[in-house]
Amino acid sequence: MPSNPSQSRRRPPPPAPPPTHGGDQPDDQGPRLYTPAEAAALLRVPESWLRRRAGRRQIPRTFLGKHLRFSAADLAAIIAAAAEPATGQRRPRRPRPPSTADLPPPRSHASITAAPEPNRSE
Questions:
Q1: What's the pLDDT tens digit per position in 75-121?
Q2: CA–CA distances in Å: residue 53 to residues 44, 58, 76, 93, 119
Q3: Confidence band (pLDDT; 50, 70, 90) for 30?
């Protein structure tokens, strides 16, 4: 019997998963799933943006129970959905609000200020 009781309770290591020979998967692991922080770093976007979009179901995502994860295919789909084709033209500019130089000159308010005062009876 071992002198240290904690050694006798130690579980044996789990068996190694069988090697997979998929096209884009490494031989030593299964499919790679990224946490929101890892996915945000890869996409170079804020993690809050990624979580908010995933919560609204606007981007592909994977849930493992209640845990949000992103596969490589999810990330590729997010990138592909955000891509815009080249049009060769720029978007038209928004019209700017008129400045004071563009407005007509104001009317004279002399008639308002020179109005006679009403008679007051005391």
A1: 999 999 988 887 777 778 888 777 766 667 767 666 555 556 666 66
A2: 15, 5, 15, 28, 70
A3: confident
SS3 of residue 63 by DSSP: strand
Report residue 34 as tokens: 């990224």
Question: Under 8 Å CB-to-CB from 46, ≥6 apart: which residues?
Answer: 40
Residue 57's alpha-carbon distances to 28, 66, 67, 68, 93, in angstroms, are 32, 15, 15, 12, 32
Which uninterrupted H or E stretch holds 43?
A: helix 36-43
Write the Ramachandran bin of 75: left for phi over 0, alpha for psi from -120 to 50, otherwise beta. Answer: alpha
Please state, in angstroms and rounded to a whole number, the distance separating the CA atoms of residues 41 and 35: 10
Torsion of CA 51, 56, 62, 63, to 10 degrees: 90
Residue 47's H or E segment, with its range, is helix 47-55
CA distance 119 to 122: 10
Residue 85 CA to chain centroid, in angstroms? 21
Q: What is the DSSP letter of 14?
A: P
